[in-house]
Amino acid sequence: MSTTNQVVAHLLDGKVFKGTTEDFxxxxxxxxxxxxxxGAVKEVECRTLKAVFFVKDFAGNPRHRDIQSFVxxxxxANQGRKIAALFKDGELICGYTLTYAPEREGFFVSxxxxxxxxxxxxxxxxxxxxxxxxxxxxxMVRRQPGSRAA
Length: 150
Known about the structure:
Strand order of the largest sheet: 4-3-2-1-5-9-8-7-6-10
Shape: globular
Structural class: mainly beta
Order of helices and strands: EEEEEEEEEEH
Low-confidence stretches: none
Number of strands: 10
């Protein structure tokens, strides 16, 4: 039985598609997205992606701004390592990862902000400018305008 995920796919060219998927798997070259509204199915090639945001809902809270810091309590074994990824377009994402390895095509990030609409984010390594883990991730986040101290 397949699990249906609500996702927002951000492409490298700035296009954004919202829909559901049952066949997204890391390191596969593509997946299918049933678009919200039309129900049409779009094949998404991972080489064109910046990131896939697995979301609680498609509307989100337009007034909420994700907190750019590590706000969760430390010490949770299932939380993973602190990670910060700066995309080539200037967007910063920070959170925790259990799957980051520099040689992989991508990795999952669990947002550090408990109020985020994102459940997890699959980041494509080719879309990043810089990725840091642990104390280096904390330092990277502190360097960004509008961040809160870790």
